Amino acid sequence: DGFLNPRETISFLACAVQMFLSFAMAGTECVLLSMMAFDRYLAICNPLRYPVVMSKAAYVPMAASSWAIGGAASVAHTTLTIQLPFCGDNIINHFTCEILAVLKLACADISINVISMGVTNVIFLGVPILFISFSYVFIIATILRIPSAEGRKKAFSTCSAHLTVVVIFYGTLFFMYGKPKSKDALGADEQDLSDKLIPLFYGVVTPMLNPII
Questions:
Q1: Is residue 191 part of a domain?
Q2: DSSP letters of 130-143?
Q3: Number of helices followed by number of strands (H, E) in the chain
Q4: What is the pLDDT along the chain (213 residues), one digit of tens a residue?
Q5: DSSP β-bridge partners for residue 86
Q6: Count of domains in the chain?
Q7: Domain range holding 148?
Q8: Could you count the other beta carbons within 10 Å of the beta carbon of residue 125?
Q9: How much is the pTM?
Q10: Does the N-terminal or the C-terminal CB of the chain have fewer CB atoms within 10 Å?
């Protein structure tokens, strides 16, 4: 009826809620960072059009759609995960009910989960990274055409915080979700310390850096 970690017990429902919230926030952050790149692109490459394009009528739907997309993906993955049969001691060797950690407890084939995770990786990792990369190609080209060193420095500083968060956030996500892991042959309790610590970066550190951007 529930899962355990080495220190406390969590109900199946509470675990499902944790899975949903953590995945939804990560997915939302993926989309938001790509939209922030578009914001930086407009601010540097088309500054005169920026107030018109990035009006309230534009950025409110952009933010809302980010949450909607992240939430929808999280519902799909959480639903697929909670439908799996679980057996054994149901001990999660993780700080939270992270989806990859819960999948290791499944007593059934998780091929569908792995395939769906791969599709999600393309949507939430591949597509945003391409969009951000193309945005920064134009941004860097524009910055290099600025005649004054002070102007170039100011423009680079505008993007530095966003670029730092992009590297940290997507780097840790690629490490965790780029190759979804099936259940360990040595048992569900076996899990690297890095698999526990890395989610703290994309789940805690990068959202805290958003206000700085």
A1: no
A2: HHHHHHHHHHHHHH
A3: 9, 2
A4: 555 445 577 788 888 898 898 889 888 988 988 999 999 999 898 888 888 888 888 889 999 999 999 999 999 999 999 888 887 777 776 677 888 778 888 888 888 988 998 898 888 888 999 999 999 999 999 988 888 888 888 888 888 888 888 888 888 777 766 654 544 444 434 445 556 666 666 666 766 766 766
A5: 106
A6: 1
A7: 12-179
A8: 16
A9: 0.76
A10: N
Whether 213 is covered by a domain: the verdict is: no
The secondary structure element, H or E, covering residue 175 is helix 149-177
CATH number at residue 18: 1.20.1070.10
Q: 29 in a domain, yes or no?
A: yes
Beta-carbon contacts of residue 153 (< 8 Å; ≥ 6 apart) = none
In a domain, 203, yes or no: no
The residue assigned the tokens 């933010």 is 63
β-pair type (2-4, 9-11): antiparallel
Q: Which residue has the tokens 């969590």?
A: 10
